Amino acid sequence: MKNTFLTATVLMFITSCSVQKGEHTKIYNLDDVSSELTIKLKVDETIQLTAAANPSTGYSWNITSPEGCNVDLVKEDSKNLGEEGIVGAPIRNIYEYRGTSTGECIVEFDYNRSWEGKSNQPKRVKFIVK
């Protein structure tokens, strides 16, 4: 009985630690940005950027980072926003960035069709890492 209680307590502790870590990650929605967003973060801090997309239309987010940028894209993921298996359902792209060194960097997010070239309204994210 004591071993079961101890095991349950340890599992609850581990689970609560992983949940708390996620609560501290700042999330920014690119859908709310008209042209430019400034994000301040510390070295080794991670943030998430999210953006709606609909790949069935041929559109996708194309990301351009300058060489020597002081943030790294450490994870890229997506979640379905519609019902599973529905053709043409929108998705939410999730980009996780981490500050690698102090300085400033502008990363460009362009929602376009690759065969049509750049759009006229890319979104720029200015990272300031301290």
Structure write-up:
- By secondary structure, this protein is of the alpha/beta class.
- It has a single domain, classed as Immunoglobulin-like, CATH 2.60.40.
- It is 17% helix and 47% strand.
- The strands form two sheets. A four-stranded mixed β-sheet has the order 1-3-6-5, with no helix packed on it. A four-stranded mixed β-sheet has the order 2-8-7-4, with no helix packed on it.
- The longest helix has 22 residues.
- The radius of gyration is 19 Å and the shape is globular.
- This is Proteinase inhibitor I42 chagasin domain-containing protein.
- Keywords: Protease inhibitor, Thiol protease inhibitor.
Briefly characterize the structure.
This protein is α/β, with parallel strands linked by helices. 17% of the residues lie in helices and 47% in strands. It has one domain (26-129): Sandwich (Immunoglobulin-like).
Terminus-to-terminus distance: 50 Å
For the CA atoms, what is the radius of gyration? 19 Å
Query: How is the CATH topology named?
Result: Immunoglobulin-like
What is the CATH first-level class name?
Answer: Mainly Beta
- How helix-rich are the residues, as a percent range? 10-25%
CATH architecture assignment name = Sandwich
Average per-residue pLDDT, rounded, comes to 85
Strand content: over 45%
Give helix and strand order, one letter per element, not per position. HEEEEEEEE
List the domain count as a whole number: 1
Number of strands: 8
* Low-confidence regions: 1-22
What general outline do the C-alpha atoms trace? Answer: globular
Q: Please tally the helical runs, counting DSSP H or I stretches of 4 or more residues.
A: 1
Question: Order of strands side by side in the largest beta sheet?
Answer: 1-3-6-5
Largest sheet: 4 strands, mixed
Class by alpha and beta content: alpha/beta
Organism: Faecalibacter macacae
GO molecular function, one term: cysteine-type endopeptidase inhibitor activity
InterPro entries: Chagasin-like_sf, Cys_protease_inhibitor_I42, Prot_inh_I42_chagasin
Protein name: Proteinase inhibitor I42 chagasin domain-containing protein
